């Protein structure tokens, strides 16, 4: 049995976080290795390194015994490594055929041999049982069909090692079964397969070995013979850094925020929030748990007025909010810590002081009519920097000079300082150092204690468990369960998140 | 098959109008159309420059400067060497250099591409006005010659087949570019790079190398457009005689939806409009002040943009510097 | 009390760390550009030292010279300011020339038509009319950008030529000086002429005051904040409740008004009438000066004076050393090239807008 892929001691750091921490694994021909882990566990980074798209800080990657060279993606591909990406690497405006042949086009002289391309694709799709129309344009195709094209792209090149990154996230149950069969057939024919997923039952169905990543580290290897889905779930969401927050019982008040029948589409115009209802009460933290990509981002954006609502309402204290008007929604009483702080939350080359008044710049006391009150803005800055422990030599340095954690603190400081009835925090501690995480958690608790209604959306289950009074689990665009936190069982929630127990 | 598509009905309209005028006065109509083609050519070639660059994801605002510098070099090298072919060669070298400079600024230095292009324009204006010397002449121009047999066809003959060498070269380039973009590997890869560079990257195509190559070659094409002005159409060089063609070309590119033949059609329309306006002035049929005919192309450019800009779809990745590892 | 003490100390701290390094870049750029140009001058057979000496002696060597320098610097300050205001909003206004011209013609008309008004009313009226027409021209580009997504680079340049054509027509027909064959308007009434203080033109001081005013507006008012925010991060601006479309149009209107004012001052203070001059470069000058001054309203002024001085001394330079006055244009082009590469990456490094100028087709 030949070793197709050998990763030794792979480490890769980004500012503030270790994405891969000394990872080692092997994949042999004819083997299906499942790479299991939550989002942020380090799977994408590992893949990008294998494909030569990013350069590791240390460690070695060998394909069929020979080390790879960073940047030489073409070389890696020619050695028989194929990848089916989670975010499709397809050109939306080109056809299926054009996308598949890109980089290795059949030619007749200097021209592309369109007929040969067509025939090749038809033959390929028959061989693997993946029907596609070579002349269809990618952006017109449904997502499942687009994925077939991704797979065919990889299969075309006499692939020896095939990597599939979350392939079933967008497929229907039948399509999933078909895909699993394809995987089995490929393995039987000698191809080595790496299956990256968080869906436990698929792992049990096809994997020969399972490798579990968590927080950038490799926490264990096992196989379906040695364990079951519950065991896998435990390995996946097990205790990492213990962040215990001291919190008292919630003093729940009246309903402040109501979401009714909300339906929202994602950027690809596909429905990703498929009818969500819930209520949020004064003085509580409602945590929405779920693996990323199940509609949470679109849900938050719709509530905060940043994304169009296809159907449904959002009510604050009984009054419906405006669609697609973030400032009006803010005025109606929602503070928002946005998921993408660089895009929506901060202006990097503004001073911290200016960022702290970004969405109140034309209101008293920060402006009197047309003229801004710089003295008040500065006073506010000094006081908030101290109160929220923002680590910076000066409150007037640019926000861009801050570390990720401190940038987030600026956003948190701004949003909390207004003391609005509702606070929506989306992935509030992503990319944030441990000390700041603790601080932000305490801020959320004290906001709750001060009477705010807090909606916390996070892919970090530990965060949800330690902060929330109630927990709602979101899966496939719907809320599948709402439990009181004292009744919440970690493994049960983990399984719900991972798509089981529906 | 729907024969009366929008495009077909445009052609039909143009054909009818042309036939109408031809029946009124054959020789004037023919000469107007022939002149129109001559006016259209530099615009069309300049639009090709824009298309080549933008299809690969680079916005090229510096076409005007490239044409200006190339026209200048073509003329003065031709004067110094008394040989227009050497002048042409020097111009092409100049244009390629400018293209390369744009690629350097846009791809490697990741500068804002609009500013990078403007720098090219300002450099060209500065250099040409400083080095300009009055009163020089060149030994000859690329004068019109007749294609045997084909030039005898009534109307189409003089319009399409009696032109200077650079015109034919230009038309050949346009056709070649059309075929290349849609039917060769290079075209497929270039388009992928301009629409979704990471897909190209993961398929093993070098985004950086392709961008450099395409922008440099585009510069050479821009040089031919400029050389055409000084060595064929006008036969001399005056400061400012590019007169905004490099910018109009961008509007034509957008209007033609980044398709070489579409841009050519738009350029022909422009050239024709100008030739027609000139004819009206000569005939004094309508008393339009000369200033208004001279601003006609500029007004048309704005109108064309206002109509089409919001509705067309540019190559998705244009204007954005590419970084490996982004998806 | 203690609060205010801390505040002032903090603010001092941040202004003192006054990034000396990045202000060196423009100075170095000018010096290197001059050296490069010196090489070209040498190649042409002239003496660079004589050339530069006479260039600067005329400009800065005497009070009259200084007066001419400041006079030539005034439209430069204003077109640089116009471009800077646009850039702050993420817009590339290359149309300063056309906007300036329209202001120039409008002011000439006002200077002739409103004869009879006392000076202290006539002058402001003419200036305002000039600014108004400048803003209309720029406003066209602004509207097309905000509501049709048409990039302002093309429309402003096209409008430059359109304005030139229209102005030329008006100056040779309806607004022409009677009984004259030349294309020009009549001389403006004495009441409209800008006074000169000693040898120094009032217009320059108006420009400086305007620059300070713009600096204040950008830094201290809500409108300025809107412009700056849209320029740096459109998404955050939208999120903060700023109407990006309205801000884009306003910025262009202001930018055009400034350029129009520049043209008006030219007419009322220097030429006293409108006559078409083949002044190709002025629109582009604005960009160089804006970038040389690091897009800062006050920083623009030294650069404008330098270039204005060079323009003032160019004729004498040609006389003394035989070097063509177009050297100044070449120098400006070189300066621009040298100043932009390092500048761009620094100034806008943390911008969330991926490009400085917003969306080619966004």
Key features of this structure:
heterotrimer, A: 502 residues, alpha/beta, Rossmann fold, six-stranded mixed sheet, 17 helices, 24 strands, 27% strand, globular, C: 362 residues, mainly alpha, two-stranded antiparallel sheet, 73% helix, disordered C terminus
Explain what this protein looks like in three dimensions.
The complex is a heterotrimer of chains A (502), B (327) and C (362). Chain A is α/β, with parallel strands linked by helices and 502 residues long. Chain A folds into two domains: 3-237, P-loop containing nucleotide triphosphate hydrolases (Rossmann fold); 255-346 and 403-497, 3-Layer(aba) Sandwich (Rossmann fold). Chain A has 17 helices and 24 strands. The two termini of chain A are 40 Å apart. Chain B contains 13 helices and two strands, in the order αααααβαβααααααα. In chain B, strands 1-2 form a two-stranded antiparallel ribbon. Chain B is globular, with a radius of gyration of 20 Å. Chain C has 362 residues and is mainly alpha-helical. Chain C has a domain at 73-283. In chain C, strands 1-2 form a two-stranded antiparallel ribbon. The chains are: A alpha/beta (502), B mainly alpha (327), C mainly alpha (362). Chains in contact: A-B, A-C, B-C. At the B-C interface, helix 5, helix 11 and helix 13 of B face helix 7, helix 12 and helix 14 of C.
What's the CATH class label of chain B? Mainly Alpha
CATH architecture of chain B: Orthogonal Bundle
Q: Any low-confidence stretches of chain B, pLDDT <50, length ≥5?
A: none
Total number of β-strand segments of chain C? 2
Order of helices and strands of chain B: HHHHHEHEHHHHHHH
CATH topology category name of chain B: ABC transporter involved in vitamin B12 uptake, BtuC
Give a quick rundown of the structure.
The complex is a heterotrimer of chains A (502), B (327) and C (362). With 502 residues, chain A is an alpha/beta fold.
Topology:
The complex is a heterotrimer of chains A (502), B (327) and C (362).
Chain A: E1 3-14, E2 17-28, E3 32-36, H1 43-50, E4 58-63, E5 66-67, H2 73-78, E6 81-84, H3 96-101, E7 107-108, E8 111-112, H4 114-128, H5 143-156, E9 161-165, H6 173-188, E10 192-197, H7 200-206, E11 209-214, E12 217-222, H8 229-237, E13 255-265, E14 271-281, E15 285-289, H9 296-303, E16 309-316, E17 319-320, H10 326-332, E18 334-337, H11 341-345, H12 352-356, E19 367-368, E20 371-372, H13 374-387, H14 404-417, E21 422-426, H15 434-449, E22 453-458, H16 461-467, E23 470-475, E24 478-484, H17 490-497
Parallel strand pairs in A: 3-10, 3-11, 6-9, 9-10, 15-22, 15-23, 18-21, 21-22
Antiparallel strand pairs in A: 1-2, 1-4, 4-5, 7-8, 11-12, 13-14, 13-16, 16-17, 19-20, 23-24
Helix pairs in contact in A: 8-17, 14-15
Chain B: H1 6-24, H2 26-55, H3 63-81, H4 84-108, H5 113-131, E1 145-146, H6 156-161, E2 162-163, H7 165-183, H8 185-195, H9 197-202, H10 207-233, H11 245-255, H12 260-283, H13 290-308
Antiparallel strand pairs in B: 1-2
Helix pairs in contact in B: 1-2, 2-7, 2-10, 2-11, 2-12, 3-4, 3-5, 3-10, 3-11, 4-5, 4-10, 7-8, 7-10, 11-12, 11-13, 12-13
Chain C: H1 2-16, H2 20-44, H3 48-60, H4 63-88, H5 96-113, H6 119-148, H7 152-172, E1 196-197, E2 200-201, H8 202-220, H9 222-232, H10 234-239, H11 244-271, H12 282-292, H13 300-321, H14 327-347
Antiparallel strand pairs in C: 1-2
Helix pairs in contact in C: 2-14, 3-4, 3-13, 4-8, 4-11, 4-12, 4-13, 5-6, 5-7, 5-11, 6-7, 6-11, 8-9, 8-11, 9-11, 12-13, 12-14
